[in-house]
Amino acid sequence: MPYIISTINVNGVRAATGKGMLEWLAATEADIVCLQETRATDEQTRAALAPALADGWWLAHAEPGAKGRAGVGILSRREPKAVRIGFGSAEFDASGRYLEADFDELTVASVYVHSGDAGTPRQDEKYRFMAEFGAYLKARTGDFVVSGDWNIAHTERDLKNWKGNLKSAGFLPEERAWIDELIAAGYVDVVRQLHPGVDGPYSWWSYRGRAFDNDSGWRIDYQLARGELPGRAKQAVVERAAAYDQRWSDHAPVTVQYR
Question: Where are the active-site residues found (predicted)?
Fold first, then answer.
């Protein structure tokens, strides 16, 4: 069956719902919306999204392991057949970084990969997550899409100032090679498949300076799909706000239509 799937790092669900997220949810045609960085407990997230839930959205949520960090969710028009938190990692399953849900023949996942910080323990933690998560993804089969904030710009076309970020977390050779490995294992970057040979479309812009106004962004929000799904993807759009003051997150929703 056809699906419209969106992914958005909300940069704090309680803040986002006060800035326009609820209005976006009321207007979107998406069937499934993957959320990252809710930064809230399950109770707080449900309270923030209460108007949307009253409108018929169904929420699966993985709470952050540390207060004010991470937290992922999946909003859907109907209740999934099954929901699973984590991917079998003793270190990361309780961190609020991965959640997946089954809808008929399709499994949809929401992931929030660490931002990292080159040369620090934070980057070491990111690499440990990548190693475990990568092994899990490579073992998956069937129609499966992992949507989320991967915090990695895969190629030079995926960030405006790539020359100035060659030694920055998010554009390190090891991180980019990891995306290469996932693609070699059968995953397809659906947005790039539908927008080949162009810069962007970027999905995150720093709040600092005039990054948004100048479209000096990063493309780090991906839908990686395998099975028959990549061939069913017919349209991908980054829902960039019309103006800086209309943003409700520093990310924009990335929405894909699957036949």
Answer: 112, 149, 251
For the entire predicted model, the pTM comes to: 0.97
Element of type H or E holding 158: none
Whether 112 is a known active-site residue: answer yes
Q: How many CB atoms lie within 10 A of CB 120?
A: 11
Q: Quick one: residue 38, left, alpha or beta (phi over 0 = left, psi -120 to 50 = alpha)?
A: alpha
Nearest residue to 89 (alpha-carbon basis) of 79, 76, 98? 98
Beta strands in 132-253 (DSSP E): 144-149, 188-189, 221-226, 233-238
| Distance (Å, whole) CA 93 – CA 46 | 21
Which residue, 37, 34, 57, is CA-closest to 222?
34
Which tokens is 229 given?
């799904």
Instruction: List, for residues 123-178, the tens digit of each pLDDT value.
Output: 999 999 999 999 999 999 999 999 999 999 999 999 999 999 999 999 999 999 99
The rounded distance, in Å, linking the Cα atoms of 91 and 201 is 33
Binding residues for Mg(2+): 9, 37, 149, 151, 250-251
Q: How far apart are CA 201 and CA 195, in angstroms?
A: 8
Active-site hit among 61, 98, 114, 149 = 149
Count of CB atoms situated within 10 Å of the CB of 246 = 10
Q: Which of 3, 98, 112, 258 is catalytic?
A: 112
Q: What structural domains does the chain harbor?
A: 3-258 (3.60.10.10)
User: How far is CA 27 from each of CA 51, 59, 66, 255, rounded to the nearest angstrom?
Assistant: 13, 17, 32, 13
